[in-house]
Specification:
2 strands; mainly alpha
Length: 177
Amino acid sequence: METLLLNPLSAEFWIKIGTALLCGAIIGFERQLRGKPAGIRTSILICLGTQIFVHLGAAYPSATADPTRVIGQVVTGIGFLGAGVIMSQGGVIVKGVTSAAGIWMLAAIGSVIGLGQIKAAIALTVVTVGVLVGVELLETSILWLRRGAHARDEHCRRRTDTDTKTCCPPTTPDNPC
């Protein structure tokens, strides 16, 4: 009798599924709370899907199949998802890069879970949320970090004539800032 690769009766199956759900939900919650693309549902699905692909790839090691190629193909597919959330406004400000990087990290965390490294995945989730929240706090509290592409829209609306050059992109018909 053949062993099931995704055995829903095994503890390992549910630990990996639960970890992917938890890690994806934590990062997705942070993104959704800030109104960013790739919220809770999307983040869970990215982490969970990547975990399943990597688990299956690792379950079929042979002379003709390379499990690391599965991870490479997942990264390629995730690149397309990430590119979908990046938008350019007037060729000056690019938005969604952090969300794209978050999607990339979700796939990395899902890969780590798929390889059975549960503690490492949880640690990476904590580090990822720490970076997202910590850098946001730095950007809002240190004025010179809010220049160029990192200028917050609300800061541009409150600008004075003296910080126009350091905070806002050039004025265009589409961008009165």
